[in-house]
Amino acid sequence: MTIDQGKIGRRTLLGLAAATAGAAVGLSALPTLAASPSTLDRIKESKRLRIGVTSAEPWFFKDPMTETWTGVGVAMGQRLAASLGATLVPVETTWANAVGALQADQIDLMFVLDPTEERRKAIDFPDAPLFYYAMGALVAGDSTIKTWSDIDKPGLRIGVTLGTSLDKNVTALVKQAAINRFSNNDETIAAFAAKRIDVAVQFHPALVVQQTRLRLGKVILPEPVEPVATSVGLRKEENPAFRDWLDGQLKTLYADGVPDQLFAGYLKSKNVDASKIPGLIKEAWR
């Protein structure tokens, strides 16, 4: 029915007003929907904190004999699980699949996941950083490479791990060199050892561990060197309780220097002297 606005009388207006008021009362009487349960509540109830793990020292390492996972990411997870009275449950994934695993509720957290703009569209991150590292390069022992422009040369082959922020960064930096992508850090280093690539680009803590194990080549921090903040990925939720709790935990752990302590402890377990290696607290870098 079409209403002729020029013929609306006082009675019609009063009727419309009454109907509108009645609708408003009806809406206000509806029950308020309860906020959805938080992942934090589920973890406390189930006593299980699930974290994603993948082959990437020093963050995650699976002992081939015992199949036990260790590493800085695992140790951080154990601390958080203990604070909740929960057991840590490692769930194997890959860097490329980590976001999907979080969305599918297969894992609760993914440590050492850089908060890129693309990832922020799909998952959540706390405000506080987990720690900091720098982009490094594993090159031949007699290499004269010092800068990123030295690396970006025709014919030079670079290896990165698929789906990482390094993949994105190197793709943006490099215009002339060839980029080879591998499913995990170990495959990237294996390609360097087999001389299928000339430069392996990873963050400096991972490269130090790999180079020490291989005793092949040398690790450099190509200039310009800038600290990169990494984080912990989690599912987007209407209820912010888990994110807020995680943010507070990370702030405390970073302020107490825990990332550096765990990193040094892991290096010691691999017989690596951490005293000459930049740590994970950028304020301590020299």
Strand order of the largest sheet: 9-8-10-7-11
Radius of gyration: 26 Å
How can the largest sheet be summarized? 5 strands, mixed
Name the overall outline.
globular
What class do helices, strands and sheet pairing give? alpha/beta
The CATH topology of the largest domain is given as D-Maltodextrin-Binding Protein, domain 2
Helix content: 25-40%
Q: Runs with pLDDT <50, length 5+?
A: 1-34
CATH superfamily of the largest domain: Periplasmic binding protein-like II
Query: Count the strands?
Result: 12
Distance between the termini: 77 Å
Keywords: Plasmid, Signal
InterPro entries: Solute-binding_3/MltF_N, TAT_signal
Domain Solute-binding protein family 3/N-terminal: 48-270
Pfam family, one: SBP_bac_3
Fold and architecture overview:
The protein has 286 residues and is α/β, with parallel strands linked by helices. It folds into two domains: 144 residues, D-Maltodextrin-Binding Protein, domain 2 (3-Layer(aba) Sandwich), CATH 3.40.190.10; 86 residues, D-Maltodextrin-Binding Protein, domain 2 (3-Layer(aba) Sandwich), CATH 3.40.190.10. The strands form four sheets. A five-stranded mixed sheet has the order 9-8-10-7-11, with helices on both faces. The protein has a three-stranded antiparallel sheet with strand order 5-12-6. It contains eleven helices and twelve strands. It is globular, with a radius of gyration of 26 Å. 39% of the residues lie in helices and 18% in strands.
What descriptive keywords fit this protein?
2 domains, D-Maltodextrin-Binding Protein, domain 2, alpha/beta, five-stranded mixed beta sheet, 286 residues, three-stranded antiparallel beta sheet, globular, disordered N terminus, 18% strand
